[in-house]
Every structure is written in C-alpha cells, then in structure tokens.
Amino acid sequence: SQQGEEDPQALSIQEGENATMNCSYKTSINNLQWYRQNSGRGLVHLILIRSNEREKHSGRLRVTLDTSKKSSSLLITASRAADTASYFCATDVTGGGNKLTFGTGTQLKVEL
Amino acid sequence: DAGVIQSPRHEVTEMGQEVTLRCKPISGHDYLFWYRQTMMRGLELLIYFNNNVPIDDSGMPEDRFSAKMPNASFSTLKIQPSEPRDSAVYFCASSLRGPEAFFGQGTRLTVV
Predict the structure, then answer these.
(1) Can you give the pLDDT at residue A5?
(2) CB-CB: which of A41, A43, A100 is closest to B99?
C-alpha cells in the first residue's frame, strides 16, 4: 500500500510561476525524498531531507518537512517548461533497509 | 558510469509465457530494488537485495514472480506464467548504503 498521498494530483502553471506540491505520509520516517519522472523514463532523485531537518534548498527547489503533521512540501521556483514531469515523494523508515515507499505523485505541466 | 541498465525496454508477450527482465545495477552499489508501476497502484516495491541477498520479498504478488541476483552486477525478475494483469512498467533501482536510489529506464511489459 502507498505510504504517501500527494496533493494536488495534477498542476498546470505558466512558465516563471512557482509550483508547490504536498506529500503526506502515515508512519514515522527516517528520511523523505523527492523524485522526478519524465514521461516514459525512470525516476530521478531530486532532494533528500532527514527527519530532524525542517527545510532544505537545492537550486530552484525548496523542501519543507513537518514531522508533527507527517507532511512535506516541494516548491519549484521560477518554473520552466522542462520542469514538466511527475513528482513523487518517497519515505524510508529506520530499520527498513533503504526500502522506499512512494506517494501517488503530482503531474506538473508548465506551459509556455 | 552508465547508470542502472535494464533490458529489454519493451516486452510484449502472450499470456502463459515466461518473461525475464534483466537489470545491471551501478557498479559498487550494494542495494538493488525491483519496483512495479501501474496507473492503479502506483509504484510498488516488489523485492530488494542487499549484497546479493534477498532481504524483503513481501511485495512479490504471487509465486509466479521470482527474482535472483547471482552476482553484484546482475539481477533478473521472472514471471512464469505471465498474465494480462502483470502488464506494467518494471523498474530496477540501486543504491549505495544510503536511501537515495538510482533508477533504470524501466521495462514496459504488455501481456496479451
């Protein structure tokens, strides 16, 4: 069963706008990651945030983690058409051997 | 490094036939994962290996599915006999100690 639920399921924005997607999960986690999947391709790791961190930045990406609410958000600033993809959160738990449980994903479309 | 390599990229087979999917992880990685992606169920972990040893196969749907990792550079996922409901994209991923996973391009399996 899916650990994470993502919201929204689909998001359409104009190039240059910011995109925010949210992920909720059910159990205590060790780390939370965000991955991108372009159509017909494999998943690509974007960023990892540990359970004792609250915010992390990488280029145009900003991730927040609220362990009390069991939720995370991914913000993509100044979006580009090339950001069009599906975005998934993934969690792992202590003692889980790096096993990842993925969310349902958000389909982002960035229009010119 | 060429990344995780999966073959074939596409497979169309008839119901009842045996299907073998192949994966070459990134050299030096000690974890290997097999995932299945469908529209209905999203990304599901089927099985994972650590240092070539199967650790958790609780996601393998039925006895028709089997996976092996005879050495650190090769793994197979076999379905025998295949059924139409096995149609999905199968991903192999590898990681080195930490939870960041590197995915292959996937094998799109269609069982008719």
Answers:
(1) 83
(2) A100
The B residues from 14 to 43 touching A (CB cutoff 8 Å) are 31, 33, 35, 42-43
Q: Which of A41, A92, A105 sits opposite B42 (nearest CB)?
A: A105
Is B93 touching A (CB cutoff 8 A)? yes
Pairwise CA distance, residues A47 & A18, whole Å: 17
A to B CB pairs, distance under 8 Å: 56
Beta carbons of B43 and A33 less than 8 Å apart: no
What b-and-e string marks burial along B62-90, b requiring 16 or more CB atoms within 10 Å of the CB? eeebebebeebbebebebeebeeebbbbb
> Are B25 and B10 a contacting pair, CB within 8 Å?
no
- The answer on pLDDT for A59 being more than 90 is yes
Query: Residue A32 pairs with which residues in a beta bridge?
Result: A49, A91
Contacts of A38 (CB under 8 A, 6+ apart): A44, A84, A85, A86
Over residues B49-89, the pLDDT tens digits come to: 999 999 999 999 889 999 999 999 999 999 999 999 999 99
Q: What is the pLDDT of residue A1?
A: 41
pLDDT one-digit tens code per residue, A26-41: 999 999 999 999 999 9
Among the listed residues A103, A92, A90, the one whose alpha carbon sits nearest the alpha carbon of residue A8: A103
